Amino acid sequence: MPKSRNKSDKPVPNLLFLCMSFVLNCRDRFRPREIILEEVEIKPGHHVLDFGCGPGSYTKIAAKYVGANGKVYALDIHPLAAKKIQKIASQLGLANIETICSGCATGLPDKTIDIVLLYDLFHMLNEPEAVLAELHRVMKPGGVLSCSDHHMKEQNLIEGITAAGLFELSSRGRHTLKFVKRA
Q1: Angle formed by the axes of helices 79-92 and 59-66, to 10°?
Q2: What's the pLDDT at 68?
Q3: CA pair distance 160, 158, nearest whole angstrom
Q4: Are strands 177-181 and 139-148 parallel, antiparallel or unpaired?
Q5: Whole-angstrom distance, CA of residue 39 vs CA of residue 37
Q6: How far, CA to CA in Å, does 73 sit from each of 48, 70, 106?
Q7: Which residues of the chain fall short of a pLDDT of 70?
Q8: What is the pLDDT of residues 24-72, one digit of tens each?
Q9: Half-sphere exposure of 5 (CA within 13 A, CB side)
């Protein structure tokens, strides 16, 4: 069962979510998400937070990478995202996925996440500082924030992520930027 979301968060209308899901599924057929996740270096046993998971393009792949001893938390503001991911997890026999329905608060304990996936979402955040603070809280020391957002210039994305001093850029991949958690 998904955890509840913040009352101030408003998901997009259901029809828009379904249209977006269709477009993303088409994209995934021509440009598989494995190409992106190879840069992240997800290992068996890792705990991954797919923040803004949408229809689960990255979630299902990450769940295979972390294996039975790892965990993937799929967080999205839209309740249909949680339902879709629960269905995918059931169909694929992935018992290591947990859904969270929220716009910011994860409900996760401090310092439990090895890797956060934040893809094509930063430009849409109403309160990016609050989201980054929450991600910083739940990440383990040395945790990695893997980020990309094709709606923003790379420099603006870097400045947005590093402005509060919670994260620093550690590397640029072909498809993603990697940030590490600062103490």
Answers
A1: 40
A2: 96
A3: 5
A4: antiparallel
A5: 5
A6: 6, 10, 9
A7: 1-9
A8: 877 778 888 899 999 999 999 999 999 999 999 999 999 999 999 999 9
A9: 21
Query: How does the average pLDDT of the chain come out, rounded?
Result: 91
Q: Determine the Cα–Cα distance for residues 64 and 53; give it in Å rounded to an integer.
A: 16
pLDDT of residue 21: 77
Report the residue count for the chain: 183
- Whether the CB-CB separation of 133 and 164 falls below 8 Å is answered with yes
DSSP letter at 102 equals -
Task: Find tokens 């640029």 and name the residue.
Answer: 172
How far is CA 154 from each of CA 41, 59, 129, rounded to the nearest angstrom?
21, 24, 18
Distance, in Å, from the CA atom of 167 to the CA atom of 135, rounded to the nearest integer, reads: 10
pLDDT for the residue numbered 9? 59
Backbone angles phi, psi at 59, to 5 degrees: -60, -50
* Distance, CA of 145 to CA of 177 (rounded, Å): 8
Q: Computed from CA positions of residues 79, 80, 83, 88, in that sequence, does the dihedral angle turn out positive or negative?
A: negative
Residue spans per domain, the chain: 14-181
CATH class given for the domain over 14-181:
alpha beta
Q: List Cβ neighbours of 160 (8 Å cut-off, separation of 6 or more).
A: 122, 128, 152
Do residues 3 and 100 make contact, with C-beta atoms less than 8 angstroms apart? Answer: yes
Q: Which two tokens stand for residue 112?
A: 């439990």
